[in-house]
Amino acid sequence: MTGGSFYDAKWRSEGNFRPKIVAYYYKQWDDFHMGFHMHDSTEFMYVISGTCTVETKDDLVAMRKGDLIMLDAGVTHRLSVEKGSPCRMLNVEFTFKPCDGIFPSFGQLAQSDTAFSELLERRPDTLVLRDSADVQHILKTLVLELDIGGTGAGRENMTNLLISQLLVRVARLAAEDAKNGAERQIHRYVRTAAEYLHQHYDSDIQAKDVAAAVNLHPVYLQRIFKANMEMSITEYLAELRVERAKMLLARTDVPIIEVADYIGLNSRQYFSMMFKKATGMSPAAYRKSKASIQFLQENQVEIVDIP
């Protein structure tokens, strides 16, 4: 294994190298003040809960739940957690090693992903990503694989794929952060709201629930959502539910009377009215039409001229 800067060109130009995890751990800190130190490895620090500060020679970064900081090898830093305000973190450190037949290599990632290549060109010693909850899933999956993934090439392949996914995702989030601050934040709010709708359309949710999940005032969220999506949250949710209902009617045997429950509607009568308004057909007629099309496709008859 070889230490050195994450941005060192040799990882891309002097053969095939890949990241190698050298340390990983969960830790609950409270009233903790670390002395300044550095690593010969690149470090990810993800805040699972609570607050803390990470200080470098150039900056003091206040962090909270969902924040991620990446510290390049050789960056002097220290962690501080105040008394009575515990902070739970997940730390992952990595260096580099030859690929030994396990790909993609670090160089291949740089060649194939624009955001990753741009990150390597910018060379930030310290990279902070706010509200990066989607990174947490990758980190947790990576650590779980390291813990219980067994031994051998299969485990090495999986961990390399996961850390490659992590690096690309971090690079893309960093690219988003490089855009205009206000526009970027609005886009993120709208995207998060849309993701919430896609994950909870089967529940009885309202615009105020979406606003609470995004941590915005409902009126403001409604305004920026409509400006970006060209429809209101209510209209977007209704359209999403109709699309899910169409899929259930066409591709499953879920009884029609239960489809409303599957898409978060308590009233079957309202579901039928909403579905017919959107499609021009009742749920029963839609299912029948799709069944007829499928029957014809499965029983095609070729008509030929008799000589």
Poorly predicted ranges: 301-307
The number of distinct structural domains comes to 2
The count of β-strands is: 9
Q: Helices and strands: which structural class? A: alpha+beta
CATH architecture of the largest domain: Sandwich
What's the story with the biggest beta sheet?
5 strands, antiparallel
Radius of gyration: 25 Å
CATH top-level class of the largest domain: Mainly Beta
Mean pLDDT: 89
CATH superfamily of the largest domain: Regulatory protein AraC
Multimeric state: single chain
Pfam families: Cupin_2 (PF07883), HTH_18 (PF12833)
GO molecular function, one term: sequence-specific DNA binding
Protein name: Helix-turn-helix domain-containing protein
Keywords: DNA-binding, Transcription, Transcription regulation
Describe the overall structure.
With 307 residues, the chain is α+β, with helices and mostly antiparallel strands. The protein folds into two domains: 168 residues, Jelly Rolls; 111 residues, Arc Repressor Mutant, subunit A, CATH 1.10.10. Helices cover 50% and strands 19% of the residues. Strands 1-8-3-6-9 form a five-stranded antiparallel sheet, covered by helices on one side. A four-stranded antiparallel sheet has the order 2-7-4-5, with no helix packed on it. A hairpin with a 3-residue loop joins strand 4 and strand 5. Helix 6 crosses helix 7 and helix 6 packs across helix 8. The protein is globular and about 65 Å long. The termini are far apart. The relative contact order is 0.09. The C terminus is likely disordered. Keywords: DNA-binding, Transcription, Transcription regulation. This is Helix-turn-helix domain-containing protein.
